[in-house]
Each structure stands twice: as structure tokens, then as C-alpha cells.
Amino acid sequence: MNLKDRTWKEFNIVDILGPANNSKAYHTDNLISDKRGIPYITRTNSNNGLSNTVKYNSSLKINPSNSITLGAENATFFVQPYNYITGNKMYYYKNGKLGLNVLKFIAICLNKSCLGYGYGLGLTGTRANKRKFMLPVNSKGEPDYKFMEDYIKEHEAKLKNQYMDYIKSNVNYFKEIKLNKEWKEFFISEIFEKIQRGKRLIKEHQEVGNIPYVSSTALNNGIDNFIGNETGVRKYGNCLSLANSGSVGACFYEPFEYIASDHVTHLKGDYSKYSYLFMSCMLNRLSEKYNFNREINDTRIKREKVFLPVDSKGEPDYKFMEDYMKYLEQKKLLEYIDYIK
Question: Which are the contacts of 244, defined by CB distance < 8 A and separation ≥ 6?
């Protein structure tokens, strides 16, 4: 299916989706993280706007599933397939007659129509309601929802085939490895040669670009934005990022070059990807000890320890860590195959 073969026509957002709804704002400090909780959507350009999943309580004003969210400051539209709550300056559109795939197509068209908006030139609900955007139409000049549905289905089928090819080429069928090892406690400073906090960079000073900006979110490998700043920042890569505030203790392996906020401490040593992944899981346990009111400052991190499996000499067994993570990876890839099928 080719987009260029279609006739396109301009429509007002309100005529297609209805007027924007104001979403009740919740501050992250007043929410409790819960991996099985409800999505918390904020003004981010990545991860479908998902900032966290939080514990449900009856006082929360829940937004409906199968709606399109709009972040005023970043002017980005996302389709939300589940019920959710939002942060500050968020809006949503709901048209109960349109299916999920059609909404996905419409969200892409909306994002294309709003290029130029963003931080410094926000897109409020009032402004958005006046916006017009292009949609493919049928012979009657009406939105061709059947084409939109079929196009998204075809596109997703192609992606699934790509995932299957990737997975099959990366499954190595490692034999099962169990954690029946001796363990020992080590100072973090013994394990990592370089430990440094990132540098503060507020939203208003973030320039558009392609470099991942890692902050204190517990999702999406800590990526909060993609920016292009070259001065006044600290870049790292092939290391661990540890959230020292916000989602304190969230730790990720970062294989790429990234810019770190001051809410992140980078941990660097001469290790493989899989050893880093193992150690990130162990360091994530720091989240049980710290919270918003007790952060991991530079003094505390020097006193912190991490449990690691050891070899016969009582030294960290990096070969075991690597083999164990490779085994877990191939297990997960096999699960993906079952899910996609």
C-alpha cells in the first residue's frame, strides 16, 4: 500500500477527533511507582509518552484507553491503548468510533502537521483545536478509515517479520545456567574505575538533535529526550547509568553515546555488554534503599556496595555473569517468537 497513490484532503482536528480534553495533572512526587500499575504519561517525545507506571488508587482521575494524548510543550501526539493518568500540561482526544489502528495513523499525520511546535512554542489544547491536518480520502472525499486501518496492519506485519528474522539470527540456545554461586560484597568504587555525575540541562536549554538524553526515568533505558547540545554537557557511552534522584536506583546499560543529566551517575569499567547487564540488575536493588527524600549523592555512592558472584579466588566472576545474561537473553528471544506467532 502506497501513501503517494492516495488522494489527500485537509481536515480540522475537531471535526475528526472532537475537541481536546484537559487532563488532570499529577506530579511524580505524589505518585508511587508500581511495575504492574497504570501508565503515567508526560511531556516526553519518546516511549509513547510513558514516564512511569504507578500504583492505582480510587482518587486518581483516569483517562480513557484508545485516546490520543497531546503534550503542550513538546507538541507530540501519541495513541494510548490503555487507561492512564498524565503529568502537567497534557490534553487528550477521544473518538470512540475510531479503532486503534486508525488512531495510530491519525497520530502520525498530526505529528507531521505540527512540525515547528515544541519547547518555546507550545501547542495548547485551544491552539490544537484550530489546527488542520491532511488525511487520505475515499471517492466521496471523506476520510478513508479503511485504508488507514489496512495500511497500519500491513506496516506492523512487516515489522513483525523483521523482528522474527533478527530473533532467529540471534538465538544461540545456551544451556540453562543457575545462580548457585558463592557471592561477595564489593564497594562500587572497587568495581568501576570512573564514577561521575552528569550535568544539569533544563528543558528550555535542550536543543533538537539525535543524541539520547538520559535522566532519572525508570523506563526506556533512562532516555528522556533526544537532543543536539554539544557544549556545557557531559557525554558518556558503553557504561552504566544510575539514577541518583527521581527514580532513584534505576540502573541501565548504555551501549551508545549519550548525554547525562545531573540526576544520573555514570559507572565505567572495562567490561562486556553482558557483564554490564548483570551488574545493572544488581545495582537496581538500590531502589529499595533510596527514595525522593534520600538520594544517592556523591558521598553515599562511595560507601555503597554491590553483591556479585565470585570465582574460586573470591573475585568477581565476570565470565559467569556474561554466560548467565546470554542465557537469559536467548530465553527472552524465544518468548518473543511465541508472542509474535
Answer: 197, 216, 263, 264, 265, 295, 296, 297, 301
pLDDT tens-digit readout, 85-95:
999 999 999 99
Q: How far apart are CA 163 and CA 124, in angstroms?
A: 37
Q: Which CATH class is domain 3-147?
A: alpha beta
Using the predicted structure, report yes or no on whether residue 132 has a pLDDT greater than 80.
yes
Residues 6+ apart with CB under 8 A from 2: none
The architecture that CATH gives domain 183-340 is Alpha-Beta Complex (3.90)
How far is 323 from 75, CA to CA, in rounded Å? 44
Band of pLDDT at residue 29, cut at 50, 70 and 90: confident
Domain 183-340 in the same topology as domain 3-147: yes
Residue 91 host element (H or E): strand 90-93
| Domain limits, the chain | 3-147, 183-340
Using CA atoms, how far apart are residues 287 and 291, in angstroms rounded to an integer?
7
Q: What gap in Å lies between CA 86 and CA 52, rounded to an integer? A: 10
DSSP letter for 142, please.
Answer: S
Amino acid at 33: S
- Phi and psi torsions of 336, nearest 5°: -60, -40
Coil/strand/helix, residue 204: helix
Helix (H) or strand (E) holding 93: strand 90-93
- What are the backbone angles phi and psi of residue 240, rounded to the nearest 5°? -100, 145
d(CA 234, CA 168): 37
Q: Which three cell numbers stand for residue 93?
A: 482526544
How many other CB atoms sit within 10 Å of the CB of residue 334? 13
Please give the Cα distance from 216 to 210 (Å, whole number).
19
Q: Which residues of 116-136 are buried (b: 16+ CB within 10 A; e: fewer)?
A: ebbbeebbebebbbebebebb
How confident is the model at residue 240, as a pLDDT? 97
d(CA 16, CA 94): 10
264 C-beta neighbours (distance < 10 Å), count: 32
